[in-house]
Amino acid sequence: MPLAWVQSLGAVLGWLAWALSPSYRRRLLANAALAGLTPAQARRSALQAGRMSAEAPWLWFRDAGRSLAPYLVWDGAEQVDAALAAGRGLLLLTPHLGGFEFAARGYAERWGAQQPITALYRPSRKASLAALQVHSRNAPGMRVAPASLAGVRQMLRALKKGETVGLLPDQVPPRGQGAWAPFFGQPAYTMTLAPRLAMQTGCTVLLTWCDRLPGGRGFRLSYRPLPAPLPVPTGDAEADDLAVTTAMNQAMEWVISQCPEQYIWGYNRYKNPRKPEGQA
Hints:
The protein has 280 residues and is α/β, with parallel strands linked by helices. It has helices at residues 3-20, 22-34, 39-60, 77-86, 100-111, 127-137, 149-160, 193-201, 237-256; strands at 72-75, 90-93, 117-121, 142-146, 164-167, 178-183, 186-191, 204-212, 219-225.
C-alpha cells in the first residue's frame, strides 16, 4: 500500500482508540496537558499515534532492498558525518515521537555500510512475536539488542568498537535501572542507561527525531547535539543519577517541543517500574 493510504488507515485506528477507550483518552489528555497542549492538540496527537501504529508493519514487512530514500528528508546530516569522522562511537537518542521506527532504518540505509547501528528494543513476551521483532528489524547495516543485561553489553561493545547505538530514553526501565526525575514537571522513572553509555565510552551523543510530513510525503530525519553537556559525576551515586536523568528528560522535552502533536502522549510514562526479568 502507498504510505499515504497506510497513514490514513492509521488515523482512523487512532480515532477509534480515542473514541472507544476512556482510560486511554484520560491518560493522553492528562499527559499532553502537562506539556501545555490544548485538548484539540491532544485529539490530533491520537490520530498521529494511530498513524505510527500502522506505519510500523509497513516498514517491518517492506522488502529490505527497496530504498526509503524517497520518503526521507534530512536535516542536520552533517552532524552525523562529523561524529563518524571523529571515530569515537555515536549514541543516537530519540523519544517516542513521529516515525521513530524509521530513524534507525534511515540511518542504516545512509551510513550503515560505513558504521553499523545497534538499536535497543523490548522483546515481546510471546516467543513468536519476539522472533518477528528481530527478523523484521534486522536489516543491512542494522542490528537489534534486547532490553536486557545481554543487550546492554552488546551496545557497550558496539560503542567501544566505534559503532553507533540508538535507543529511546523515555521508555520506563525495570526497577533498579533508573531514577525518578521530572518530565514535564511530574516525576517519571527514567533510565540511567543512556548517560552511562555515553560516560563510559566517551562517544558522541546526538538527539534525533523523525517527524511525519503531511500528505503521506514521508518523514524529516533531524539530528542535533545535546542542548547542554551531561553533568559531571560527583561521586554521590544517588545525586549523580538524579542529575543525569534530569538532564536526559530535559533533552527529550526539547525534542518533543519540535513537534509536540506527534509524541505518543498515550504512553504510560509515569507508571511504576516493573521488576527486572527473572526477579520474583
